[in-house]
Structures
1.
Amino acid sequence: MKQQFKPATLCVQAGWEPKNGDPRVLPIIQSTTFKYDDTEEMADLFDLKKEGYFYTRLQNPTNDAVARKIAALEGGVGAMLTSSGQAANFYAVFNICEAGDHIVASTEIYGGTYNLFGVTLKKLGIECTFINQEDSEEQISKAFRPNTKALFGETISNPGCKILDIEKFARIAHSHGVPLIVDNTFPTPINCRPFEWGADIVTHSTTKYMDGHATQVGGCVVDSGNFDWEKSAEKFPGLTTPDESYHGLTYTKAFGKMAYMTKLVAQLMRDLGSIPSPHNAFLLNLGLETLHLRMPRHCENALRVAEFLSKDERVAWIQYSDLPSDSDHALAEKYLPNGSCGVMAFGLKGDRQTAIKFMDSLKLINIVTHVADARTCVLHPASHTHRQLSDEQLRQAGIAPDLIRLSVGIEDADDILADIRQALDKIAE
Ligand SMILES: *Cc1c(COP(=O)(O)O)cnc(C)c1O
């Protein structure tokens, strides 16, 4: 089921297409292994000569159906589920990088990805240069080296809520012969499809809106199939020269547009093994079935909250791109015409203590280390995820010490607003 259907139809029906007499609902194939009648057939599967299931670390029918749904929603040629968003971003990069290589990424990205790229990849011999995504093409181009293999950014950054100029980033990446990888977690393909703007690979933390109910941690890598690996063959020997661990098979020659995806599954997942359980994939699929209904409601509620906060004199600043006054509103109108998502960042006049007083006074809205699910929630990076940092160190990491990340859910907006109002009143007491 491909692009002939609209996103809402794909959310409900893509991926699992039952044949006569099959279960209507995607079954959970909770089996590590699959049975075959003869040795020959199993051998062909191992040699990638035939398609089929033999071991769930490589492929599982439940996981694959959900991956197909996400690929259809993004308009990609294929997708692979991972056990977390962290794993998805690691695999997306590591599939085309090795020791001695280099990547370029926006400083605005999620803290977990920032650490992965800046600290952990470095230990594997892969260096990352972080750039300001608002800089000019010429400025950002200066970060590229002969050994650079990818450019990376987030459509909507977590937690700063800045919007990526995807077309600008795609031009920069392609002028250096490398793919653009975009983490599209916050808008989801309901609000933005980065492939339509030139991105080559998309990643997701499916833990967030795609699941939407905070029941599973998961991730996904999707390939557009558009990047010409052969054109920059010397940069991507892992795809364009024989793989010793697969009897000398060359991915681009054997699989064409599916080269990147096949290597991702057949080599990286085989060797590193961060698969989701089929049960988690099933839960993710349930979430995806209502994604197209939830995203507009998240946006509608968040805009009401953002309008209220932007007018309240106790609020020092707010970053929510759907507000006409927002610094990134023009980018949002271009890339996110139906709304961004339910997440916003804002600061209260006062200090760290003011933010803490406000958050501790919330009743309906919960303090949780999570974002982007049906329940409205809030987090203060300075006292939670980044509490070991001083105010100065926080600013260097691009996070204002007073930044409150509010993730507006799909409850009644009146109730969300009432809770925020009463908590703001408490800070003056
Ligand atoms: C949460 C998040 C991640 C990491 O995902 P996990 O599923 O928590 O591993 C990566 N990128 C973004 C934008 C996120 O919000």
2.
Amino acid sequence: MPDARSDATSTALRICPLCEATCGLTLTLSGTRVTGARGDRDDVFSQGFICPKGASFGEVDADPDRLRAPLVRIDGVLREATWTEAFDLIAARVRPLVEEYGPDSVGIVLGNPNVHTMAGALYPPLLIGALRTRNLFTASTLDQMPKHVSSGLLFGDPFAIPVPDLDRTAHLLMLGANPLDSNGSLCTAPDFPGRLKALRRRGGTLTVVDPRRTRTAALADRHVAIRPGADALFLAALAHTLFEEDLTDLGTLAAHVEGVDEVRAAVREFTPEAVADACDLDPATIREVARELAAAPSAAVYGRMGSSTVEYGTLANWLVDVLNVLTGNLDRAGGALFPLSATAPAPRPAGPGRGFALGRWSSRVSGHPEAKGELPTAALAEEIETPGEGRIRAVITVAANPVLSAPDGRRLDGALDSLDFMVAVDPYLNETTRHADVVLPPPPPSQSAHFDFAFNGLAVRNQARFTPAAVPLDEGRMDECEIHARLILAVSGMHGAPPSAVDDLAVDTALAKAVTQQHSPLYGADPAEQARLLSGGSGPERRLDLMLRLGPYDLGLDDLRAAPHGVDLGPLEPRVPQVLKTRSGRIELLPAPIAADLPRLRAALDAGRDALVLVGRRHLRSNNSWLHNVPSLNGGSNRCTLQVHPADADRLGLADGKPARISSAGGALDVEVEVTDAVRHGVVSLPHGWGHDRPGTRLTVAAGRPGVNVNQLLDGSRLDPLSGTAVLNGFPVDVAPLP
Ligand SMILES: Nc1nc2c(c(=O)[nH]1)N[C@H]1C(S)=C(S)[C@@H](COP(=O)(O)OP(=O)(O)OC[C@H]3O[C@@H](n4cnc5c(=O)[nH]c(N)nc54)[C@H](O)[C@@H]3O)O[C@H]1N2
Ligand SMILES: Nc1nc2c(c(=O)[nH]1)N[C@H]1C(S)=C(S)[C@@H](COP(=O)(O)OP(=O)(O)OC[C@H]3O[C@@H](n4cnc5c(=O)[nH]c(N)nc54)[C@H](O)[C@@H]3O)O[C@H]1N2
Ligand code: SF4
Ligand SMILES: [Mo]
């Protein structure tokens, strides 16, 4: 490993943690400083692809605003402290709250970067288990929870998420996703843009459904500029058309599906004519899209943010896979398949499972049902503010910035400020962490080992890659895994125990279970001996090694170390019925909670139409709320402007480059107008993650171009009821020019 005292140049491999594409990077180092990054041409998965974010890895890594030491609030002021002082304070403050007010008095908030770190994959489940709180909030209810709920209901497993077989499909119907800027989501595919171009080069077709003419839509054979929020209606009409024109063909899947006739009846009213007005589409177009889907030799339907964070998000996500099933494309090459990651438990034999339960408990104040053990992040503020038994008095945020990423940040600001105690595991002093009593900063990514626990299970090709830390930990730094382990000990009454105790317990628990499971590769083995055999220099590496050994491939951590550019495990393969965990052991195509939500969708057919609604957008040189502090990623076309169609601009008296006031239920914002026909009429677009104008933060570059927080327009009351996911796309707004 490079030496901090030397300035000799060298290179090191690092999987990029900045988006779901998980590209392999080759870092150039001067001593221990990252001076550059290029795509690793030998990476088995990304084969040299890199985007501007990855290319700025060195700048992201070396941001001078990254916190170097823990911060502890003393007399109201956050000051640098030692790790011992920080964990002592956590231990002294959290346990008494739990003892006096119960486990639910501590809320846990997990943000998106947890899926981009080993620590975030391995420890939060243990933290939740240690605290036994039901007040768990994550970025999932601002994102993909509708997919988890839909998969839970259809397949019995919320993590069984079919991904489009990008490299082999003949037809991709994509809704509410813009992978040319996002690089893909719930579909891990380095160089997604190149893979879409390859699809078209081999004669395949791409249809993009999006109210904006995105860079992805510009690449498509067909762009369907739907009215926001109407995807579920559009998809129901596609299903209706397949039935009406006798175009369904489940193929070999038929033996594993129940409820097809029930779905046929359920979509009867959703004719293309009936949904046309709500979608603002020609019925003939809807029929053509359905026919093309049915006629394609293979096809995949794929939906993301724009069909998820909307009023009918779970219904839309359910319909995506209903269409994959009805056209026989689920679980076949070229369709939508279930990945099998190297750290997934070895497959158990096919057969009935325990099924997926929804709403096992509800949130205290508004009675929102839990989904996958989580409550809606949009309800976090009220759970802190509302007095009574079960009120949240302390919050632990890990890699989360809900003040910007969730609805009504101003209210959340006030709520976090009123807490008895708050801990943040975060590299920055930002809009959220400024409220903390203790901030525990992880090291920059070059100093952490990496393995993608989550994204390998969502990847278009099975593969496994591990990159050790590229450079050693700086003096005074603590590995994020150790931070998490010490945090767990501090809040669970074991403060002072060695952090390895947490990993040992996890290893022992997993081994004790595995040796009793007949389908496990370690069935019947001696757990103590297996624990001794584990390879890895640290607790988390031993845990990774164990998960690999318990997994479906004959792999261990040493194999991954011996293959620094990764191990290719082949294309996705059919997994039905083994993957199913429903009570019936079959795909349950019309689950009861979905059927119960359909009347709401029927009502939407005749509901009034809003004159102007807002949708979000992402920019290639941005990532949610936390990359605006990197100079090369902030500026140019990455700006927080309100995009308005020329016809709407005329109607409302708005002019390009001029200020306007936009308002909705949660408040009003002053923005700069950008007139462009890339948004359809009746739709305006404002990106999220901006609004870096609050005092008490340390984000020098971001504060210089703060932008506005789009989520201030929301009051937190608009949710997809089945998943508790906030409606971030397709809500009504008013816009007026400012003098
Ligand atoms: N209006 C609107 N709102 C949205 C969205 C939208 O499209 N429109 N998108 C939603 C989506 S999809 C998501 S996923 C959420 C994201 O919501 P969040 O996860 O709350 O927000 P992020 O901006 O990703 O912030 C992550 C935090 O993690 C910190 N961080 C960065 N790297 C690390 C690390 O290595 N370790 C730790 N411990 N912390 C780290 C950052 O400093 C930051 O504080 O936002 C949602 N909000
Ligand atoms: N560069 C960059 N990359 C990122 C991120 C980032 O912030 N920046 N964030 C990462 C994260 S956390 C995620 S979850 C992914 C998200 O990845 P994507 O889902 O691909 O990203 P979005 O840009 O949010 O795309 C949503 C699209 O839906 C459209 N849309 C809005 N409303 C509707 C609707 O009602 N119907 C339809 N059909 N379309 C609609 C929007 O116009 C937008 O083009 O990106 C990840 N990658
Ligand atoms: S596409 Fe994503 S993973 Fe690849 S270099 Fe860019 S930010 Fe990193
Ligand atoms: Mo996300």
